[in-house]
Each structure stands twice: as C-alpha cells, then as structure tokens.
Amino acid sequence: MKFNWGTGIFLFLVIFLLACAVFIIFASRQQVNLVHKNYYEKGVDYSEQMKVDARSKQYAHSLKVSSSSDFFSINIKESLTEKIDSGTILMFRPSDKTKDISAAVKAGTSTMQFDKRELVSGRYILKFSWYMDGLRYEINKPVNVQ
Fold first, then answer.
1. CB 3.0–4.6 Å: which of 5, 30, 114, 124 could bond 72 by disulfide?
2. Is this model's pTM higher than 0.85 or not?
3. 8 Å CB contact between 76 and 62
4. Which of 145, 113, 109 shows the shortest CA–CA distance to 130?
5. 89, 103 contact by CB (below 8 A)
6. CB-based burial of residue 87 (10 Å sphere; 0-12 exposed, 13-18 middle, 19+ buried)?
7. How far, in Å, CA of 89 to CA of 104, rounded?
8. Across residues 85-103, what is the average pLDDT?
9. What is the pLDDT of residue 34?
C-alpha cells in the first residue's frame, strides 16, 4: 500500500475523531459535586435568602466551635436556644456531597457533637438554620476538621 497525502488526511481525521470520542466518554463519567441539583429554584429564592441573611446577622457570634480528639462540638448560646422552635445543623463538604452530615436541633439543645470518625479531615461549611417565631434564620461558618 502506498502512503500519500490522502491517506495521511484520512488517518489524521480517524485519530482525531477517536480522541474526541474518548474525551467525551471520559468527561461524561466525571462527578460534578459543586452544583446543586435544584440550582434554578435556589436562584429564584435568592431574594428570600438575602432577607434571611439580614435577619441572621445579629446572631452571627452565637456559635462556638471546638474540637477534641474524638468529637467536633458546636455550642449555641443559651439565649438563642431558648427561642428556637426547630432547626438543623449541616456540616456541608463543598468538595464531596456524600460526606455531608446533618443533625436536627431541638428547642433547648445548646450543644451538638459529631463523632470525628464520621468526618473527613478538611474544609466544611457549618450551616445552622432554625425557625424562631415563624421566621427562618441561617448562619454559615467555615470550619476546618483535623
């Protein structure tokens, strides 16, 4: 078989298309953890989230985070826990949503503990959201678990 410029162009196109197909298969199998599944609804509710953030500013220093060898503790000020109707604490891991941990906060509960064996070392965002007098409040605080 004789190798001429037509054969070279044909081989180049075949190799190029195979490389594109391999890249498309590779890209489609990657997990994307940084996007919310319901990002459209979150965008629509952004004005409500701004109101929640404005209401919550006065409680920004109500959380104290401490760490021991076995537990990761979150302390909520007593003055706030007396007013809370219900709430949740979410340890949100931005790099991997499968490592998120959530716990319910009941009225009067001032200390929450998470076992360090359930947490992976690294950066988390502590999201404390609660209802008080029918209004929603939320505090976000970055924390590092070691």
1. 114
2. no
3. yes
4. 109
5. yes
6. buried
7. 6
8. 87
9. 61
